[in-house]
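Chapter review: from sequence to fold.
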Amino acid sequence: MEFKSLKFLGMATAIFLGGSQLEANASLIAFQSFNGNVGYSSDGFGDTSSSGVISASAPAGSTVLGAYLYSVNTYGTSTTPSVTLNATPVVFSPNIGSSTWYNFRSDVTGIVKPIIDAGAGGVYNFNLTESSTFSIDGEALVVVYSNPGLPEATVGILDGFSAFAGDSTAINFANPLNPLAPGFFAEMSLGIGFSCCNQKSTVMVNGTTITENAGNMDDGLVVSNGSLITVGGFDDPFSPLNPSYADDHERYNLVPYINAGDMSINIFTENPSFDDNIFLANFYVSGIAGINEPPPPTGPAIPEPSSMLLLGAGIMGGVAFRKRLAGLFKK
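The token string follows.
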């Protein structure tokens, strides 16, 4: 199993809430990428009662590779959140959002890993508390794990905030895809804060609009600041194509929008009303892929059987080219 961490820097111009604020900053960027026999879990929590449970799911025999807790503030609140996970104070990074959306991330692998690694598999519950809960819309927990029983795959995590012009993500493969191959999968989940009351975002996959209703407060308990969050989670069904606002669960099956022979999956997310805080995007796809960069040269990916002979002649030159190109993205 190979683990690779991405630090992909980008710049985007963002205008929020009627254009009163103009800023140049990074928006949704690739934070981590994991390759190998890997899987992931995501879950959300939003409640003004200041305490509750956030969960993760992993099969028996899993080893946690990374666990990340996100905390997102209500609109314009800049104070770093005060949160505990299983009674341990969480130390957050500086703001990874903007001067409008204050979003924070913490590596909580040390809290989560001992419990899941020693566990019997299934759902694991973690106690979470918030101070100043009305200033915090909620949390998201993302856990990535390896397991020898899983197929070869890629997990990608993007975080930050939603750019005014939208955010584009490319999942790049070394070989053509065959979405009809047995066991092929590709999915995406979003984390969105400060969302309710028909505030919504758009997701396009390979040019097809799959939803114009991403958002709402699916993981919140009351319509109030401090509870306005939704996270596509391990226990959520896939959203149907073009769902209603109530039926969008922020978890999407990308397979129907992939054509045989595609070398990449291209995703575009946008909040046209500039009032939703898209702070997180997770991707889980068959094979070895690169997230916003060329695929690792050693990745087998998922070739179409009919394409094997055509690919053979150019594979040696292609590998050398990818090695040179991949070097441009290394820090």
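Two observations follow directly from the output. The mean pLDDT is 84. The two ends are 22 Å apart (CA to CA).
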